[in-house]
Specification:
Layout: E1 4-8, H1 14-28, H2 34-40, E2 50-57, E3 63-70, E4 84-92, H3 101-115, E5 120-125, H4 130-138, E6 142-143, E7 149-152, E8 158-167
Parallel strand pairs: 4-5
Antiparallel strand pairs: 1-2, 2-3, 3-4, 5-8, 6-8, 7-8
């Protein structure tokens, strides 16, 4: 897999995961709300509901990407069905771009969904995350407008969250 190894995050890696995620998102997106920028730095706050995985360079062990999968039994306040796998916070280190890290992590999420017997993989994305949208479409995801919603940000702005779904073969 292009010299990339994916594994469960270790308990002592959350600061590094937060730094990587913050660096990836702020590298690509200028207009992220301040509170979200801070939340990106603290993935440990989400470990009750999400399991984090990291992509590392197989030869050096350097963390080069991460993704969070919703744990079985959680449903994002009724938005995710029991037979769906939801993931978020997919991030590739800016220094590892072009190596296929995002593809590898997304395919990992799909593999995990299949292993769990899920019928679909679901994610939300901001409207400006065009590179991510292209990656999801390339891997077979389609946008599902009926599942999209608008959230109000702490600064009063409203943000449409786009929803992408990959239906898995039965």
């Amino acid at each position: 897999m292009n010299g990339i190894r994916i594994r469960a995050a270790a308990d002592d890696e959350y600061a590094a995961i937060g730094a990587l995620t913050h660096a990836a998102y702020t590298h690509d997106y200028d207009d992220l709300p301040r509170n979200y920028r801070e939340e990106l730095k603290h993935p440990e706050a989400l470990t009750r509901e999400f399991e984090f995985f990291v992509a590392e360079d197989a030869s050096t062990g350097e963390l080069i990407g991460t993704v969070a999968l919703l744990r079985p039994g959680f449903d994002m306040h009724g938005e995710i069905a029991p037979d769906e796998l939801y993931f978020r916070l997919l991030a590739t280190s800016p220094t590892a771009r072009g190596r296929g890290v995002g593809i590898a992590l997304t395919e990992f999420a799909v593999d995990q969904a299949q292993a769990r017997g899920a019928r679909a993989v679901v994610l939300n994305s901001g409207p400006d995350m065009l590179g991510a949208h292209a990656l999801y479409r390339k891997l077979g995801f389609s946008r599902r407008g009926e599942r999209e919603r608008v959230i109000e940000l702490p600064d009063g702005r409203r943000l449409e969250l786009l929803t992408f779904v990959l239906d898995l073969a039965a």
